[in-house]
Design brief:
- By secondary structure, the protein is an all-alpha fold.
- Helices cover 80% and strands 0% of the residues.
- It has one domain.
- The chain has helices at 10-28, 31-54, 58-74, 78-100, 103-109.
- The longest helix has 24 residues, at 31-54.
Length: 113
């Protein structure tokens, strides 16, 4: 997975992370999910940039979740893929809540809330 090699380069990582999410969504053949992804792309970009500058090793942690998701999909185990995706989303939510509690991050996020 190329993202593992770009963990120290925020711009390259974000491009690969976006491509990963788009690929996963395309595989679902769910047009509504693709529309949702397109609609939130700018917010995700802002979130990604906040994470890589504020949260130590965010990319390394995200890569572990991405690897679990990809492995489950590769093994054609939808229940395992769903479980891995939910774990990833819970971690993102946990970090977002933690970040929003910090005054400097809350101020940086204000334009998007």
């Amino acid at each position: 997975m190329e993202m593992e090699y770009a963990a120290d380069d925020p711009e390259a990582y974000y491009a690969l992370d976006t491509a990963f999410h788009v690929c996963i969504v395309k595989c679902t053949q769910n047009k509504i999910l693709m529309q949702v992804l397109n609609a939130i792309r700018d917010v995700v970009a802002m979130q990604q940039k906040q994470f890589v500058t504020i949260v130590p090793d965010h990319n390394v942690t995200a890569n572990r979740y991405h690897r679990d998701i990809l492995d489950a999909i590769s093994k054609q185990k939808p229940a395992l893929a769903s479980k891995a995706m939910m774990a990833h989303l819970r971690e993102v939510e946990r970090v977002l809540v933690q970040l929003c509690r910090r005054k400097e991050v809350a101020a940086a996020l204000a334009p998007w809330t």
